[in-house]
Amino acid sequence: MENKIYDLIIIGAGPAGITASVYAARKQMDFLVVSLDIGGQAAWSGDIENYTGYQFITGPELAQKFQEHMLKYGTALKENEEALELEKTGQVIRLKTNKADYQARSVIIASGKKSKELGVAGEREFKNRGLTYCATCDGPLFSGKDVAVIGGGNSALDAVLQLMKIAKHVYVINNTLNLSGDAIMLRKVQEAANVTILNNHSVVSVFGDKFVNGIKVKSPDQEKELAVQGVFVEAGLVPNSAFAQSVEKNLKNEIVIDSRNQTNIPGIFAAGDVTDVPEKQIIIAAGEGSKAALSVFNYLSKNNF
Ligand SMILES: Cc1cc2nc3c(=O)[nH]c(=O)nc-3n(C[C@H](O)[C@H](O)[C@H](O)COP(=O)(O)OP(=O)(O)OC[C@H]3O[C@@H](n4cnc5c(N)ncnc54)[C@H](O)[C@@H]3O)c2cc1C
Known about the structure:
Blueprint (H helix, E strand, L loop, with lengths): L4 E7 L3 H12 L4 E5 L11 E2 L8 E2 H13 L4 E4 L3 E7 L2 E6 L3 E9 L3 E3 L15 E2 L2 H4 L7 E5 L3 H10 L5 E6 L8 H9 L3 E5 L2 E7 L3 E7 L4 E4 L3 E4 L3 E3 L28 E3 L11 H21 L3
Parallel strand pairs: 1-2, 1-8, 2-5, 8-19, 10-17, 11-12, 11-17, 12-13
Antiparallel strand pairs: 3-4, 6-7, 7-8, 9-18, 14-15, 15-16
Helix pairs in contact: 1-2, 1-6, 4-5
The chain binds flavin-adenine dinucleotide.
Flavin-adenine dinucleotide binds next to helix 1, strand 2, helix 4 and helix 6.
């Protein structure tokens, strides 16, 4: 365990955590950022057209700009490090990661969300062998191939929009009666010549040899196999909140916060997609990150830390 007690530890370096870090640096706090990656879900997005100031930017480009902004202040960053346990004893909050133990007077949890697994046969076996949870990261590997996108909301539409430009054919497997999501994205997907939408279908299994070569899908009246070399799972997201065991959560496992980003534990704040704030967007997460850092500054000042 490091003996040092930081003013603040920020968990996560997506839009919320990075923006919190910019505000913390400008308030001259002594802080640390601990994160599995930089950019979070923003780096997985294809085309972003709703982040004010950029009429169009790709997810990886925006994530790069966020990173440059954060590192401009010489921010202490522990990358590839996973928060495992968080607890408060007296006035000190202890964070245990897979690599070290840290202490701080305050914490901002900005650990966002991760992809939900389908829970079907073959999913784990073929993960990274044709089955992936990130179209932006892995889409280019499937140039000229037939692929399936599993899901029917905005994340699935975003994946289809990227893949239909790269792959030969894209099947969309959606287990509801209609796709949902932004009307503009939906129209582009419905009009694409190389996209087949299978509504009211779900995946039964993923199969192959060394790599994926197909999926079995079922509708209420039949089961069939589709020959695909790529499977992109876009079946929704779950909050990365398990490590914050004593922090109050709602039924969706989102961390409950007040309008100042304070959780039920004084000194532990949260921001962005991991919280119960309605609507999950980059600009909202970034705004929440800034608000959380300013709340931390007030909390530390009030408590004479
Ligand atoms: C495919 C896709 C397309 C999207 N397109 C758009 C769009 O066009 N416009 C828009 O506004 N929004 C879009 N979104 C939503 C947007 O990306 C999110 O709302 C936003 O990224 C949330 O930011 P965040 O910082 O709260 O969380 P995240 O972006 O999820 O970042 C969380 C961070 O925490 C880290 N982390 C997680 N668990 C741990 C742990 N245990 N220990 C340490 N670090 C951890 C992660 O590595 C990551 O750095 C899209 C999302 C997806 C998935």
